[in-house]
Amino acid sequence: MTEAAFRSLYEQHRDALFRFGVRLTGSAETAEDLTHDSFLCLYRGGWDQSRGSAKTYLYGAVRNLAYKRHRDLGREDSDCDADAPVDPVALGSLISKETSEAVRRAVMTLPVAQREVLVLFEYEDLPLREIAQIVEADVGAVKSRLYRARESLRKWLAPVFEEATR
Amino acid sequence: MTDRDENFNRILRQWKVDGPSSNLDRRVWSSVRAEQSAMRGKRAWKWLPIAAGVVLAVAAGAIVSMHHPSDPHPTGAGREMRDAKIETMAHAEGFVPLPRGAITVVSRKEKQ
């Protein structure tokens, strides 16, 4: 890949990938590492043009590197079929302080398989087909995870909704 | 999209994330430069055996030409030199030196 082509892709996708990394891992520092490593993979020629766009490749790289990092740190994610435990009392007190932090906490409590599709759909505005490519699942599975993620968030963020509708 | 969904999305989007620090740019470009120099290094190592082979072949050729007898059938300037030598030898054929004392020096006046 030429330096000019790489620079163009970097400037185009850097911020979005970083945001995705932050919302996936909850850490700006980790998100910077993931963004850096993903672009380096791209530069080294990891992207196969016939398998999708550079954008899809980069999101997939951030996601896979996040998984790898998680595994290397010896953490086990909860099964995507099971709702992660959340403390509604703690969340309620947080909500009264700051909605942004409440949303962050609620999203971070989602199982990672639900969280990644929610972030890509709600925050990055990616179509379901592209999300399916990135998370290596079919569109039906993506829809199902998205539905469950939204239902969990609606439940956990109910106090915020009440506040918003007053 | 229902009203509830709009409300849901509006609340979700209250989780704002700042952009990356300038440190990310520095890290990425420094890694790209390192990658480029590693690639150049790899390319150099790839050509090194070929270059060494060429140098050895030239050196071997020079050594052989220094120690080997000259070509028995030279062309060009070599042939001219050889022909010139033969010509000199042809003119010298039949030359018999005069015996000692057989030379008489005659001045121009005496000759006249």
Q: What is the chain-wise order of helices and strands of chain B?
A: HHHH
The name of the CATH topology of the largest domain in chain A is Arc Repressor Mutant, subunit A
Query: What fraction strand of chain A?
Result: under 5%
Main beta sheet of chain A: strand number and arrangement? Answer: none
The most extensive contact between chains is:
A-B, 33 and 24 residues
Question: Mind explaining what this structure looks like?
Answer:
The complex is a heterodimer of chains A (about 170) and B (about 110). In chain A, helix 1 crosses helix 3 and helix 2 packs across helix 3. Chain A is built from nine helices and no strands. The termini of chain A are far apart. Chain A is about 75% helix and about 0% strand. Chain A folds into two domains: about 80 residues, Orthogonal Bundle (Rna Polymerase Sigma Factor, Chain: A); about 80 residues, Arc Repressor Mutant, subunit A (Orthogonal Bundle), CATH 1.10.10.10. Chain B has a domain of about 45 residues. In chain B, about 5% of the residues are buried. The model of chain B has no long low-confidence stretch (mean pLDDT about 75). The chains are: A mainly alpha (about 170), B mainly alpha (about 110). At the A-B interface, helix 1, helix 2, helix 5, helix 8 and helix 9 of A face helix 1 and helix 2 of B.
